[in-house]
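User: Fold this; tokens only.

Assistant: Input:
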Amino acid sequence: QQKTRKLFVSLERAQAQERKLNQEWLRLEFEQRNLSKSARIRDVARNQLRMSPITPDRTLYFKEGL
């Protein structure tokens, strides 16, 4: 009887842990999808990193051997 109760409690804890890990996995998958979107990348590049698209007038070309 006591052993059965201990096993049941252990099972319940394991199931709770499984639910928690599954929720965390889903959250991380959602976060990964959001971070990998190209629009998000452009937004971060522009607003946080202050980057701008390359333009021909800002491009330098180097020739080898000169």
